[in-house]
Amino acid sequence: MSFDIPQNYDEWKHCITVICGIPLTPDYVKQRIAALEDLSDDHTRQFIKSWGQEHHGRTVAWFQRASKELGST
Predict the structure, then answer these.
(1) 66 belongs to a structural domain
(2) What is the pTM of this model?
(3) CB 49 within 8 A of CB 56
(4) How far apart are CA 12 and CA 23, in angstroms?
(5) In angstroms, rounded to a whole number, what is the distance separating the alpha carbons of residues 27 and 40?
(6) At 7, is the secondary structure helix, strand, or coil?
(7) Rounded to whole angstroms, what are the CA distances from 41 to 2, 21, 47, 69, 70?
(8) Digit-coded pLDDT (tens) for 6-21
(9) Backbone dihedral angles phi then psi of residue 32, each to the nearest 5 degrees
(10) Residue 1 included in any domain
(11) What is the count of structural domains for the chain?
């Protein structure tokens, strides 16, 4: 199975909600932001190691945008 890394918010949102089937609920989004911003978390460090600092920053920004869209900021 090949996987294209999302390059923009719409691709990322489609990947999360359609391909992975994960609803972007306020609680889920809040938890993911907290986890991704915790640089001491093993999963976050592995994410950065696997996908790079730049993609990590984009992913955090996409979750923050989703949070704003949900009115949960």
Answers:
(1) yes
(2) 0.90
(3) no
(4) 13
(5) 21
(6) coil
(7) 28, 25, 10, 26, 26
(8) 999 999 999 999 999 9
(9) -65, -40
(10) no
(11) 1
